[in-house]
Amino acid sequence: MQTQITCPNCGTPYVADIYQVVDVGRQPQLKELLLSGQLNVAVCPNCGAGGRVATPLLYHDPAHDLFMVHVPQEMNLDQRRREELIGRLVQQVVNQTPMERRRGYMLQPQTMLTMQSFMEKVWGTEGVTPEMLARQQRQVELLRTLATASPDVQEYLIKERSREIDETLFAILRAQIEATSQMGDPNQVVGLLNLQAKLMTQTDVGRRLEKQQIALHALNRDAQKAGGLSPAILLKHIIANVEDEALLNAVALTGRGALNYEFFSLLTTEIDKREKAKDTAGAARLSRARDQLLAMQKEMQEATQQVLQEAQATLDDIMTAADTEEGVAANMGRIDDAFMHVLEARMIHAEQSGRRDEVEKLRHIQEMIIAQIQGETPPEVQLLTQLVSAGSKEERDQLMAAVPDLVSPQLVEIVEMLLDQATTQGQADLAARLGEVRSELDAKLLAQ
Ligand SMILES: [Zn+2]
Predict the structure, then answer these.
(1) Residues 20 and 106 in one domain
(2) What pLDDT score was predicted for residue 376?
(3) Are residues 431 and 402 in the same domain?
(4) Which of 166, 305, 406, 411 has its CA 20 to 30 A from that of 262?
């Protein structure tokens, strides 16, 4: 719900999206926002002040029979007004639920006195216990202490609290580095990067993650050199990492684009070769790897199938909405690449069957989504999209000259990331264009 807010800091009125009802059966993306702490957060466009907005929140998760409500103390409502408010929200959920899905528990939501107990329940449906949450909180605090501690204290803490330094801690640290570099405090970023490097070399988990990064980097480098990832290149790296199950998995996951029929027949040839050479141990190791990879491929195919089915369902929702624009707005959180593919496929099908009205409607939906996404795209990505589709170096020079502030080392980083991605996914053409853009950017930055 678009809600008018007056900034408590500078008095500027502005509009924010505030939800009082989260029904994850209908809008699963709201659960992600809630868990990542981004639901009902308002930030003043004028002075940047903001945070979580105090609002009542009714939560419904039909898959877990969870129906609960939290009304913040600071709203200062008396008993009668609280009950009226809750009753109104409950009514809203009930009205939106088809008759056959209404349940007895929907008459009376469970009241959560604090937002913390409310969130613990939501995390519980994800299999995350309060103990796990508390552990994560301690890891965040440990990182905060480490980031500002002197080298001696750092070393002491790394030994003393080694049991808390696990992959989750590294993931939190990576997220912090990313967030800090976006806010543009270079000193802080350097400090966090140094801490990361230290943790990488001084802890078991860190050394394992580093090994993994090296293995993946080698894969990406070979793929880039060859202008794309081929089954043969993937196989070479699978064989190189066959002794270490975790590395094998990481390599296969990164190179999953090449995990196809050709790959498996090459792998079988390798196994036969070892059998002929009486290398029984080697053949057995590769056979085990093949079983593991086949299972992984099957799992991924099933996941793809599910993603496509979900995209179909989203498109059906939008197509049958009374108001198409509202349908698109309500489903924006569910729109991804898979959805766009499904949309495109249905448009082609409708065109071939001569269903003009349907084609028009689908095209209208596509246009609305593209407009919405472009509005949300960061300026760096918009620039890159233009650079990659530009026809000549002159055109790219002009594009870059128009936005000199965007031509920065950060932009080079984004290009490298996309380049890695394009190479691994076998998009040779895109990779070549990105390579051109990168060398031109490098030249510009050197000249500055
Ligand atoms: Zn303000």
Answers:
(1) yes
(2) 63
(3) yes
(4) 305
Q: And the tokens for 71?
A: 């009304």
Ligand 1 centre to CA of 366 (Å) is 35
- Domain of residue 72 covers 2-124
Tell me how far the alpha carbon of residue 405 lies from the centroid of ligand 1, in angstroms.
26
Distance 54 CA to ligand 1 centre (A): 17
Report the separation in Å between the CA atom of 85 and the middle of ligand 1, taken as the mean of its atom positions. 28
For position 361, what pLDDT does the model report? 93
- Ligand 1: centre distance to CA 13 (Å): 8
Whether residue 25 is found in the same domain as residue 115: yes
Question: Is residue 307 situated within a structural domain?
Answer: no
Cα 49 to ligand 1 centre (Å)? 5
Residues 405 and 371 in one domain: no
Residue % of the chain over a pLDDT of 70: 98
CA of 10 to the centre of ligand 1 (A): 4
The total of other beta-carbon atoms located within 10 Å of residue 340's CB is 15
CA distances to 197, 307, 371, 408, 411 from 405, rounded to whole Å, are: 30, 39, 24, 7, 10
Instruction: Give 43 Cα–ligand 1 centroid separation in angstroms.
Output: 8
| 437 domain residue, yes or no | yes
Residue 406: which of 378, 370, 430 has the closest Cα?
Answer: 378
Q: Is residue 231 scored above 90 in pLDDT?
A: yes
pTM above 0.70, yes or no: no
Q: How far is residue 289's CA from residue 39's CA, in Å, rounded to a whole number?
A: 43
For residues 30 and 18, the answer to whether their CB atoms sit within 8 Å is no
Same domain (yes/no): 120, 57: yes
Total domain count, the chain: 5
Whether 24 is covered by a domain: the verdict is yes
How far is ligand 1, taken at its centre, from the CA of residue 4, in Å?
A: 13
Q: Which of 140, 175, 202 is the last residue of a domain?
A: 202
pLDDT for the residue 183:
65
Task: Give the residue-averaged pLDDT of 309-320.
Answer: 92
**Residue 24: closest CA among 58, 61, 64:** 61
Given 332, 347, 376, the domain boundary residue is 376
Do 10 and 120 lie in a common domain?
yes
